[in-house]
Amino acid sequence: MKKIFVLSAAVLAAVAMTSCGSSKESAYRKAYEKAKAQEQIVEQQPVQEVVQTPVVTPVQPVEEKVVDNYDNVSVRQESLSVVSGAGLKAYSVVVGSYSVKANAEGAQRTLNNAGYSAQIAYNKDRNMYRVVATTFDSKGDAVNSRNALRATYPDAWLLYNK
After folding, report:
1. Among 109, 110, 108, 112, residue whose Cα is nearest residue 120
2. SS (H, E, C) 44-102
3. Which of 47, 71, 83, 85 lies in the 20 to 30 Å Cα band around 97?
4. pTM for this one?
5. For 59-100, what is each residue's pLDDT tens digit?
């Protein structure tokens, strides 16, 4: 009798377990179908676009007198001493900065071979050798030279010698 009772309890437990799984599956299926139906409803509804009309305000003409475009170009100020070269003017175009003098001399040779009269200047405060490709009295000429040099030296920058 005990065997029959245990066997029937096991069968009932197995039936109960399998019936729970199918109810979970049907619950998931119902939730999926409901979500799909809502998605289709949203797709069928026309989308209303919000159109904002720009507000146009009249602008009074301003008379500007432009002397040059070089005022907004940034220039770094440093106190330098010339190590190799003819001497620096007020504005210079720097194409390289090196902590080792031999590296600066190599860059100077490359520039001299390209037709520039390159110079090496030393910044004692930063312990850096600056390789100067060109040097000018006016900022405008220095900016034009820097822009031309950026084709070969993209990191070229302007220096004002204190």
Report:
1. 108
2. HCCCCCCCCCCCCCCCCCCCCCCCCCCCCCCCEEECCEEEECCCCCCEEEEEEEECCHH
3. 71
4. 0.57
5. 555 444 444 566 678 899 998 999 998 889 999 999 999 999
Which of 145, 131, 136, 141 is closest to 95 using CA atoms?
A: 131
- Count of residues for the chain? 162
Q: What is the chain's alpha carbon radius of gyration, rounded to the nearest angstrom?
A: 40
As a whole number of angstroms, the distance between CA 42 and CA 30 comes to: 19
Q: Strands 157-161 and 91-98: what pairing?
A: antiparallel
Strands 119-123 and 76-78, how do they pair?
Answer: unpaired
* Calpha distance 63→47 (Å, rounded): 47
Strands 128-136 and 119-123: antiparallel
- Report the helix count and the strand count for the chain, using DSSP H and E: 3, 6
Distance CA 156, CA 145 (A): 10
